[in-house]
């Protein structure tokens, strides 16, 4: 599609992929969606992005990132049939973290019908330069028909500028005032709307939007996120504002190459994206009273949130989907009860090692910024990987990125292998799901 063009789309669930070519020094690109009524959000919950991944209606969700064949894709799911009647438009946007869009090669947005897998719209050749946030396109309803319009309109003020233009309240840490900037250039005129289209998007002035119309008070959204790397492998949860509430640890995985399906088996129903690979998210814990144990699906050791060990495994996911996925929840209201927690993952079935697997770990506290990191490429025959070590340091949990692949000795289970590597000292017996 060309910029400004529009096309009808089916009133169904659409997968929205925002993709780019990967490479060194290429900024991260995060997809987001803004649900609009009369050109503005009804409340901050109408902004769906990495820190707020699910709309209350369930109609829009941020599904996360995957990497394959030299490309990185961030995905949204928009179910047009489930959108509330008052929603007139869904703005599909992207923000760049670590640079401007001029450094992002082969940027595109593609919409697919999830029922058929067919492409219903695609817009590339966007031609961005100094912008750090872009409205790539919008879904809008006209006379009962949903259409997609290719927009390609940019903001030099980043995701915060985009969000505030639509009436979203942003709560970001205060920083010292920067030196005066050069006088801004005149903003380009907005694109003329297609025939019969709704009112065009506001021009990207980067200035705060005028006060919104009266609406129920909602907490402001936070745009900050923390990514752990080899160079910066640790972070304090308390310093990120996460000192209470629940901390959810999510594991998402994606095979970089096709896997061979086995006939039959209890994983036959798993999506083709993940084949029949089954990873299990687990946690070793040591409490301040000296008690130790494990939380895992094996042996139905799911733990508990409101009594020791104050850690709970939500379920045994067999697809790796971000929207559900494997989730561990830690009750931060009982931080003083923890001495250390080691989050790790094992391969239960479907692969002999983590080679060829791309996995992302996200720690999402109720308060404060989420913390995420990706695993390195696996080059050893490993079936267990230590993900993150949480250590109580003076009442604050320090998160340390481990991303450490371990190779069990013959006859030694993955659980016993990680136990020995970190000196937990538990007694292990065979178990099953």
Q: C-alpha Rg, in Å?
A: 23 Å
Low confidence ranges: 174-202, 204-218, 257-275, 319-324
Number of strands: 24
The main pleated sheet reads as: 7 strands, mixed
The figure for the number of domains is: 2
Q: How much helix is in the residues? A: under 10%
Q: In percent terms, what proportion of residues is strand? A: 35-45%
What can you tell me about this protein's structure?
This is Tellurium resistance. The chain has 433 residues and is mainly beta. It has two domains: 6-223, sav2460 like domains (Lipoxygenase-1, Sandwich); 227-422, Lipoxygenase-1, CATH 2.60.60. Helix content is 4%, strand content 39%. It has helices spanning 158-165, 414-422; strands spanning 6-8, 13-21, 28-36, 47-48, 60-68, 71-79, 89-97, 108-113, 119-124, 133-142, 145-155, 226-227, 234-236, 246-255, 278-287, 292-295, 303-304, 311-313, 326-331, 338-349, 357-365, 371-374, 384-393, 396-406. The chain has a seven-stranded mixed β-sheet, with no helix packed on it. Strands 1-11-10-7-3-4 form a six-stranded antiparallel β-sheet. A six-stranded antiparallel β-sheet has the order 13-24-23-20-15-16, covered by helices on one side. A hairpin with a 2-residue loop joins strand 23 and strand 24 (396-406). It starts with 5 loop residues before the first strand and ends in an 11-residue tail after the last helix.
